[in-house]
Amino acid sequence: MEKNHMLEIRHARKDEAAQLGGVAELIFRDTFAPFNTEADMELYCAEAMSAEAFASDLDDPMSEILVAAEDGAIVAYAHIHRGEAPAVAGSAPAIELKRFYLLRGQHGTGLARRLMREVAGRSAALGAATLWLGVWEHNGRAIAFYRKLGFEEVGEQPFLLGTDLQRDLIMTVPLATLLATEH
Ligand SMILES: CC(C)(COP(=O)(O)OP(=O)(O)OC[C@H]1O[C@@H](n2cnc3c(N)ncnc32)[C@H](O)[C@@H]1OP(=O)(O)O)[C@@H](O)C(=O)NCCC(=O)NCCS
Question: 44, 86, 158, 161: which has the fewest Cβ within 10 Å?
Fold first, then answer.
């Protein structure tokens, strides 16, 4: 794993579930609260961003969570999951990037690219050749970032945020493309 100045990228530890939940909820609210009702945000955060949810993810043998930590404080995380990939992801072994979240202060700093490179390295080590993800169709910044790195839209899937059924784009990229990018 990479270490640069005071910011290191490493696997999350099991005792970091609560900290991860706090950072995840902060980023999720910062990014999506303007577009959703508070009730839907509450419902989703309680289910997916609690310390319990992260404790269970950290225990899941099919999942890995990488964090970027600055002086011990988590400022970004990525969650990869070895599950069933949608047919549109292609026939090569594919791994899902379930979450890729940076605190706002880290946007545009190059950290996202560095973290993605670590994600690609771990995914390749797990035997995958393709990375796939779902991204909300109106998350313009994330879509632009993924495109910049070589991801392409291949389909769509529903995403339930609380009670609101939304449309996610499915994007994929060959790991070889991510591993070839400079950082
Ligand atoms: C998505 C995310 C990881 C991208 O990392 P980042 O450091 O912000 O990405 P970058 O700044 O390198 O690239 C974003 C690009 O989108 C562009 N952009 C910004 N806002 C945009 C918008 N509303 N629509 C389209 N493009 C936009 C930027 O100009 C930049 O392109 P450029 O480098 O050519 O100028 C980060 O913003 C993040 O964590 N966001 C909050 C959580 C999130 O949405 N995660 C993804 C969920 S699937």
Answer: 158
